[in-house]
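Researcher: Let's try something more involved. This one mixes different molecule types, so please make sure each is placed in the same coordinate frame as the others.
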Amino acid sequence: MSAITVRKIRFPFDDAVRLDGDDEHLGTLLPVLGLSLTMPYLEPYLIRTMNAALQEITDPALAEDVRRFAQQEAHHYKNHALFNETVRARFDDATAARLRAIEAALDDDYQRFTRTKSLRFNVVYAEGFEAMTCAGALAGAAHGAFAPGSDVPGGELWAWHMAEEIEHRTVAFDVFEHLVGSYPYRLVGSVRAQWHYLSYVDRLAKEMARALGRRPARPRTPMHREMLRRYLQTFSPRYDPAAIELPPAVPALLARYAAMAELVR
Ligand SMILES: [Fe+2]
Ligand SMILES: [Fe+2]
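Model: All components are placed in one shared frame. Result:
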């Protein structure tokens, strides 16, 4: 029996995206919006990778976790694709077209990775992304970033998505350990994947900042320090996402979205 629940939810994105606030606030917000813009390309790539991995996985419990991971990611990117329409609509047509061009370049990379790269490359990319995202999500949860009433554009999309990233945090790691299992390759492959991914988030954030005529500042809050600390811990040879103690907010969020979901299994 898998501990991962698939929650089919569609959030409404009726509100226009507001981008006010000081430079440090914008320094948090624009990368978050950039992250959202990557999701309809990154998450399908993770799903393609997991479907390929399923052909090689010999552990039935892990295979079931992988299927549920893929279903969760599919619901994530469908919501982000809807939200992203409102993000692009916040900008003029020329900026929206430039954002779409960066998105298309990322999609091209991911389609090429699926076509031409080894399963080992794609699995370590998935683990590098998942470990980094889970570290960020845990720090956010510990600092109340996903509390109801947050004014981050996209609203509860983030709390639901990040809670499920924490819920399925073991899957890509377990697939990597099952199929590859090399610590040096996890280090090198994760850093390479994170650099590739974050370079696109950075390009998207810079394009939005340019359009706004703003210079966002690097945020230096306690939450960001904890993100960095948790991220660095993922590079320990003893890193084990199953052993992470969850902030108390996480089970409550997972229960909230299970109750709101159209479909729970
Ligand atoms: Fe996701
Ligand atoms: Fe994920």
